[in-house]
Amino acid sequence: MIENCSWKKAKEKFKATRVALIPVGATEQHGPQLPLGTDSFTAQALAESGANKTNAICTPVIPIGVSAHHRHFWGTLWVSPEAFRHYMYEIARNLSYHGVRRVIFVNGHGGNFPALQEISRTLRLERIHAVVFQWWTSPSSIALQSKLFQHKGTHAGGMETSIVLAIRPELVDKDSYDEAAKGAPATFGIVKHGSQLPLDTIDFSPSGATLDPREATAEKGKQLFAESEENLVNLIRWLETASDDELDPKPHPN
Ligand SMILES: [Zn+2]
Known about the structure:
By secondary structure, the chain is an alpha/beta fold. Helices cover 42% and strands 9% of the residues. Zinc ion binds next to helix 2. The site of zinc ion has 6 residues, from helix 2.
């Protein structure tokens, strides 16, 4: 993690790799049972272990993201998508100043995704190649989730509770599981006739949770973590070795 390095040590690390990881989280409510830092902790833990298993650089975690829709629950912090886009774009450009032009945003919070995807396209025009990695959205993670959980979905349900039990068990309040599950919806948000309504979390969840944390275990969390870590390591290795031709924007067809 570069924050632990002197500039001399950082120089060695930057010279030895083509890939940097930027863990991106949130400080937002995760039901009564999980800490506000849930998304930051998962992003940081995955990015750190991905960096340790490869020669990628890992930046400090970005702890506040696009979370306004959770603001009714105490302690949630957020920035606008515009501010977030600018901030993340500039961090990616900092890395290119030090010679690393391939970046993976290790994202722990779904609300950050549209902004990260948008700036990744913008960065590509400058030949800075960014990819957004999320631990819960790959096909192999979804297959594992179906095996482990009756209730699918993410926000503050069995899956996220399991992963926090695996990495920061002391921060999980098991006495609040029943409160979290009471009135919790089966999906995040409400869809009417195929259209997702632009709601806040409090519109559909009285506790801030979705689904049911009572099926969470640390063992399930460890399996989810290991599966995602493997995906991330494979993504780092691919990005490290991909040719410029594969990554660069293309010209017009002939
Ligand atoms: Zn989360």
